[in-house]
Structure formats: C-alpha cells, structure tokens
C-alpha cells in the first residue's frame, strides 16, 4: 500500500522505504476515500489550496517560489483568477502584503518556500502581528516523512512563528486544507486582525483528497462585536459631562473600517472634544479639522501631549497605550477618568489602569455612542476654557524648525511634498527613523488607509515593499514611500519588482547620510559618540534608479525642490528621488526616554547630552 | 542601576483547551515570551472524544500581571476557557509525588512511621528501600519530602498540581 495518492511519478515525492522511517500511517484522506464512493472527484492539496484562496476572494498573492512550494506554483500557473507578484526577497513579500492589506482593508496573502523562504518572511509576520494587519502566510514545508530529520531547507516554521503570529498551522493531510484555510482567513480578518501562518508540507500539496469534504469543525473563534450597552451609556455620560475631554484614537479605528472613521468624526462633532491619534491611527480623523491636535507621543505635538496630560476624561479608541505614547507611566495623564475601547481584552489594563474598559469592535462602539448621545439628546459642556488652554499650547508652534536658504530642511521637504500632492490624496508609506516621524508630523491625512508605516515593530525596509503592495491594491493611486537613505537599502532589491509590474511608485529619500534617529539618540544619551551611525559608502541613488529602469532625480537646493517634485509627479513610471537634506537636523518635539508628557524637548538647544541609567534602559 | 523585583502572588489557573498538536507549546511559549512564571504545569486529555484537555498552571506575579496572563491565555485560539481558581474562591488542589527512600534499621522504621502519619502508600519495597506514593496539597508534600530527607531520601518525582472549584459548578 502506498501512503499517498500521487498525481505525479516524481520519485523524489514518493514515500521512502517504510523500514527507514518507522511504521506506516494511514492518512485521513485515504480513509475517506476507502469509505466513500470511488467516484467522488479528487484534487491535489495544491489545487484545493488555490480553490480555497479563490473562494476567499484573493486576487493577489505576493511570493517567491522554491522547492517546497513547487506544486502550489504549478497549480497557480494553471489558473487565471489569482495574480502572483514575484518579489525579490521574502521579506519584501510580507511587507508588500501588509501594504496591500493596510491600503485596501483586505487580507494580504504571502506564498513562500520552506526554510529560508519562511525565515525571511518572519520579520514581516512579526510586523503585521504588532500592527494588527490581516495577513495569510502560506509556507512550504519539507514532506511530513522528512520533518525532524534536518532535511534540506527544513526549518520549524510553526515553532518560529508561533509567538509572532495570531495563529499558525501545520497541515498534515490535504483533507484538512480547506477547513484550515477558511478558519485562517476568519482568524486573520476578524476581531483584532493579525497574521496567520499555514505551513504545508510538500507531500500534502501533492497528495489528493476528495473535494466534497464538508467542514464540520466547530467554530472556536468568537471576536468581540457590539459593546455592552450600560458601559456605552456610562462612557457617553462621562464624555458629555467632561470639562476637558480628549479622544485618543489608534490603528483600531482604521482596522475597523471606513464606517469607524465616519462615526469618530460624528462623535467628535457632537462632543466638541479635541482628537489626537497614535502613529498607526493617522487619517482616521481629518488633519484639516480644527479639533485635530496632531499625533501624540514621543514625537507628537506639544498640544496633543499637554492635552493628554491635563484632560479630565480620556476616551481611548482602538489604541493600546504603547510606551512610545505614554512616556513615563506614573506621570501619564494623572487626573483623568480613562475609558478604553479595544477589541482585544488583553490590551485593557496592560500598561495603564483604566476606569471604564469596553471590549468591543471600536467602530461599532463609537456608532453606539453616537446613537446614545443623539437618542438622549446630550449637550456637551461649554469647552471654551479647555480650548483656550489648547490654543495656548498650540501657540508654542512645536513643529516649527529653523528655516534655511542654503540647504533643504527635511521638514521643509515633507511640507513641499505634501503641498504638491495633497489634492491627489496619496498613499504614503515610510521606512523607520527620523524621516518617518517628520512625515507623521508634516504630512497630513484626511482619510483612513492612506498612511502605511511600521509602528509597533519599527521595521526599516518596510516602506518600499509596502508601497508596491499598496500600488497593486490601488492601481490608480499616487503611492509615495517617504524613506531615509539607510532604511531604503534594507529592501532596495524590491525596485526590480516595481519595474517588472510597471508600478509607478515614488521613493522620496530624505538623504542626510546618517541613521538619523540613532544619531539623535546618541546625541541625547551618549554625548554624541557616533557609534556606527554614519551611512558610509552610499550608492548613487540616481544611477541605481536608472540601472533598475526607474527614473532618478537628485535635488540639493531648496529653490529647486518644487520643480524637482513636480518632475517626479509628472513621470509615469517609478521614480527614486534623492533629496539631499540638512545633515544635522534632528526630530523635535521629543519626549525623551523615561520622561513625562510635560517634559518635552522642543528644540535642539535643549538637548542635554547624557542620561541616567534608568532612562538609558528604557530604550 | 539594579533590576527591581516586584511582589508576587501565587495563582492557580485552569485552562480548557483544544487537544491538538502545538497547544501546549503555544501556551508554555507564551509564558516564556512574555516573561511570565510557571511554577508547575500539568496537562491531560479530559473529554470523551479526546478533543479537549485541561491544563493546570501554577504561576506567580503581581495582580495586574496575573490579569494580563489570563487575558493573554484567552487570546490564544485553542484556549476555550481560563479560570483563576485562586480568585474564583474555594477550590481543591492536589498533587501526587513518588518518594524513594533508602535506609536500614531505625531509619527504615522511622520512614515507615512518617509515611503512615502522612498517609503515603508503599508501592515498591526492597530490603533497603521504599517508594512511597503520596497525594495532597503542595504544602503537605513539601513537608513530607523534607522529613524524608532526614531518613534517607534518594529521589522525588512530582506531578505538579491539578485543581477544581468546590461545589457543583464546572471550573
């Protein structure tokens, strides 16, 4: 008796002699076949997988082929409904899927081979986990008979990804594939979204199973939905009676969908409360609104952080009190009543104790609040005094920076880019570092799903592949990766992907020849001992662009910047823009490590040069 | 700068989980990756159809950390229910230990006498050794093992505790 029903004569796929590998096992698919009518049509695991992806509405897969996924790639070749996008490195596949997911609201799908294929994708999986991005990662695995033997390109993918994915599977039988894929999509997209990994051994891709397998597995995933009505009433009452309220919103509002953003705007209008947001939540509330305070946290605005510190009622909506947001925990918003709406119970009371926890989908909960507010005809307290204090903080003009006629200030570059593109409602991706914070401060968003950045994991190399994914999901959109010269090199090979698929992404590099954020911290904390933070031996980005078939533009003078940006936007294909900016500029305002919201550094002349060990240890 | 230690409480958690590959690794690994303590952990299949297992975990941490541990356990897909027995009220905890003691003459007589007091059963004997089987709360077993050290303890095997709520309700 052969163990698998093979659809190929490939000897390498056939089962090795049983004597070497212990007792024979009977696959469940085989039992099913024996018990069922022989006429039931069968398909290979690879074909079943493709059918399931189509059933789930997948139109794009980001991947890279290899030995352990060849059967899946062959099945892909024989269909027309799913477009496969060949990246240049598996990290690029994962970040591209994130960019696709974040900009479209649909799950991103990744297909990589076993061993190095899977391990290269791990950074993107961890990134999606921390930023709650819905993603399905399909990894090839060596045949079940070889698992555990240190086979060629074997890695324990489920072991490696267990704690950086929302859930993962090793599928040992093609009969289990369809149920697994369906559950995986539910888990990835419902509740707090996240990456789900499905590891599929090669023999499971080749072996067949009946196509009439019905999924009787009990539903075991129950995400939160509507909020408790009493809690919602209490929250609305707190908000309506507040004299100094604030809404602190996060990526959850964007994950919840466009309706959540609409409801948020309504609630802000009704309550008259100012709104601030985390890095991940930018765009959920329009930056053009007078109620917008700007981003909060380490590089947030003075007015947002001061208002967080001084408020009497804080309504936290789909954010998670990250350490970059709270600053010193014991000094965080000391006098406020805190309401926290989060779909993930484990986010509640994780770092900050809150007074009114509400576990629910944030969009639904905000909508419920709006309904209660209107239904009970609440009137907001007069907030004139609160707003006049906010006005005072705004007058500090914390995002101001020293202008220069001689060199391009990085903040100025972002401002001009924003001015030139705002009518087009572009999708902006970033890498990680100073440029990311400058983009968050000086580029302004009026709609959700336009701002794609690596917030939780802080992954350099995220921006270019994310832009590629976003462009594929939004073919008509203007997609710009605001990058640094160091970060862009981390996944620069993906330029080839953009070329291959004719994707007109723009990469706008703020080139200051330093790993700027590292240098900034070294200036603040280590008396300017610049340990390995200089970007030496940089490539000629213009020549590099041309080598990949892109257009390259270099700009060094402030007076030439607008024309150069216009040239970039006018070009139909991909452009790499090497914007040579002031080398020594730092990103302010800043809450230094271990400090409170009220202890912001506003300008570079307030930088002290060293810190005590407690502050150093806080990262 | 020195690393600060926080005051911890002991809690007994029971988890009802899917009996599938990787569940134990998922839970145990979550404790490691988030820096939580495991003092003991027991796991066994408890359902008729072999689909469900019960895991009993004894952990330590300040109250907010215990709350986080429960929330993080609940977040795992194969975990159906988490009960904090320590928080939930009256419950029973039991552990089984096998205790091997070597000795002759008075030592041997004393070991037998103590075993009798602690209601330990002899499950293996040679002319110079015993293996005792003892069940009870962790304190009782600790005390018994300490006493056996005086009379020739060779080795101990302990199961870690299992626990259930008192009364008619399921944990």
TrEMBL record, chain B:
Annotated Gene Ontology cellular component terms: cytosol
BP term (GO), one: isoleucine biosynthetic process
EC number(s) per entry: 2.2.1.6
UniProt xrefs under CDD domains: ACT_AHAS (cd04878)
A family per Pfam: ALS_ss_C
Protein keywords: Amino-acid biosynthesis, Branched-chain amino acid biosynthesis, Transferase
PROSITE patterns (UniProt xref): ACT (PS51671)
GO molecular function, one term: acetolactate synthase regulator activity
Involved pathway(s): Amino-acid biosynthesis; L-valine biosynthesis; L-valine from pyruvate: step 1/4; Amino-acid biosynthesis; L-isoleucine biosynthesis; L-isoleucine from 2-oxobutanoate: step 1/4
Catalytic activity, reaction form: 2 pyruvate + H(+) = (2S)-2-acetolactate + CO2
Transit peptide among keywords: no
Segments forming domain ACT: 12-87
Gene3D superfamilies: 3.30.70.260, ACT-like. Chain A, domain 2
Keyword Protein biosynthesis on entry: no
Family recorded in the similarity comment: Belongs to the acetolactate synthase small subunit family.
Biological function: Catalyzes the conversion of 2 pyruvate molecules into acetolactate in the first common step of the biosynthetic pathway of the branched-amino acids such as leucine, isoleucine, and valine.
PANTHER family found in the cross-reference section: ACETOLACTATE SYNTHASE SMALL SUBUNIT, ACETOLACTATE SYNTHASE SMALL SUBUNIT 1, CHLOROPLASTIC
Quaternary data: Dimer of large and small chains.
Name of this chain's protein: Acetolactate synthase small subunit
């Amino acid at each position: 008796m052969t163990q698998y029903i093979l659809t190929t004569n490939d000897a390498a796929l056939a089962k090795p002699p049983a004597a070497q590998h212990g007792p024979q096992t009977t696959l469940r698919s085989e039992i099913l076949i024996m018990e069922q009518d022989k006429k039931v049509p069968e398909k290979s695991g690879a074909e079943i997988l493709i059918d399931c992806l189509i059933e789930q509405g997948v139109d794009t897969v980001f991947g890279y082929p290899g030995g352990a996924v060849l059967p899946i790639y062959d099945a892909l070749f024989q269909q027309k409904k799913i477009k496969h996008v060949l990246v240049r490195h598996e990290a690029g596949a994962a970040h591209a899927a994130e960019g696709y997911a974040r900009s479209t609201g649909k799950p991103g799908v990744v297909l990589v081979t076993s061993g190095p294929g899977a391990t290269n994708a791990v950074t993107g999986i961890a990134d999606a986990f921390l930023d709650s991005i819905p993603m399905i990662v399909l990894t090839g695995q060596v045949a079940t008979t070889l698992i555990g033997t240190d086979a060629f390109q074997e890695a324990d993918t489920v072991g490696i990804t267990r704690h950086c994915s929302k859930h993962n599977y090793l599928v040992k039988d093609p009969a289990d594939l369809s149920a697994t894929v369906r559950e995986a999509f539910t888990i990835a997209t419902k509740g707090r979204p996240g990456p789900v990994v499905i590891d599929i051994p090669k023999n499971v891709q080749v072996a067949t199973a009946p196509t009439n397998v019905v999924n009787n597995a009990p539903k075991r995933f129950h995400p939160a939905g509507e909020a408790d009505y009493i809690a919602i009433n209490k929250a609305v009452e707190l908000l309506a009676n507040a004299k100094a309220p604030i809404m602190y919103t996060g990526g959850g509002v964007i994950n919840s969908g466009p309706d959540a953003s609409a409801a948020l705007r309504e609630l802000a209008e009704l309550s008259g409360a100012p709104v601030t947001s985390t890095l991940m939540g930018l765009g959920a509330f329009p930056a053009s609104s007078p109620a917008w305070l700007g981003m909060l946290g380490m590089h947030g605005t003075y007015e947002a952080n001061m208002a967080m510190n001084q408020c009497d009622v804080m309504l936290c909506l789909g954010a998670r009190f990250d350490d970059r947001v709270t600053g010193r925990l014991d000094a965080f918003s000391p006098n406020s009543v805190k309401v926290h709406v989060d779909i993930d119970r484990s986010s509640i009371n994780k770092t900050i104790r809150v007074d009114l926890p509400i576990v629910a989908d944030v969009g639904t909960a905000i909508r419920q609040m709006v309904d209660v507010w209107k239904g009970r005809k609440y009137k907001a307290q007069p907030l004139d005094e609160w707003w006049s204090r906010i006005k005072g903080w705004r007058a500090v003009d914390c995002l101001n920076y020293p202008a220069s006629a001689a060199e391009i200030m990085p903040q100025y570059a972002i401002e001009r880019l924003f001015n030139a593109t705002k009518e087009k409602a572009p999708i902006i991706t970033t890498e990680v570092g100073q440029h990311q914070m400058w983009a968050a401060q000086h580029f302004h968003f009026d709609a959700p799903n336009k701002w794609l950045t690596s917030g939780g994991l802080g992954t350099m190399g995220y921006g270019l592949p994310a832009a590629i994914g976003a462009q594929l999901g939004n073919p008509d959109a203007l997609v710009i990766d605001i990058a640094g010269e160091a970060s862009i090199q981390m996944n620069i090979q993906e330029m080839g992907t953009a070329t291959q698929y004719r994707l007109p992404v723009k990469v706008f590099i703020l080139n200051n020849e330093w790993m700027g954020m590292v240098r900034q911290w070294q200036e603040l904390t280590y008396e300017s001992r610049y340990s390995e933070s200089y970007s030496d031996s940089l490539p000629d980005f213009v020549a590099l662009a041309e080598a990949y078939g892109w257009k390259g533009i270099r700009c060094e003078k402030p007076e030439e910047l607008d024309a150069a940006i216009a040239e970039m936007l006018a070009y139909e294909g991909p452009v790499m823009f090497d914007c040579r900016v002031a080398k020594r500029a730092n990103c302010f305002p800043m809450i230094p490590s271990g400090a409170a919201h009220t202890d912001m550094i506003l300008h570079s002349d307030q930088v002290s040069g060293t810190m005590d060990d407690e502050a150093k240890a806080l990262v | 700068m020195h690393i600060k230690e926080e005051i911890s409480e002991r809690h007994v958690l029971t988890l009802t989980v899917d009996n599938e590959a990787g569940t134990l690794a998922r839970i145990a690994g979550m404790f490691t990756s988030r820096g939580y303590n495991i003092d003991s952990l027991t796991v066994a299949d408890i359902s008729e159809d072999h689909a469900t297992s019960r895991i009993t975990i004894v952990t330590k941490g300040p109250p907010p950390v215990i709350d986080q541990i429960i929330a993080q356990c609940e977040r795992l897909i194969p975990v159906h229910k988490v009960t904090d027995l320590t928080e939930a009220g009256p419950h029973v905890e039991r552990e089984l230990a096998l205790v091997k003691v070597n000795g002759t003459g008075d030592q041997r007589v004393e070991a037998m006498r103590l075993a009798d007091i602690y209601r330990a059963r002899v499950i293996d004997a040679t002319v110079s050794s015993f293996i005792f089987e003892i069940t009870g709360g962790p304190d009782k077993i600790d005390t018994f093992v300490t006493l056996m050290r005086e009379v020739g303890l060779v080795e101990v095997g302990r199961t870690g505790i299992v626990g259930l709520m008192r009364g008619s309700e399921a944990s």
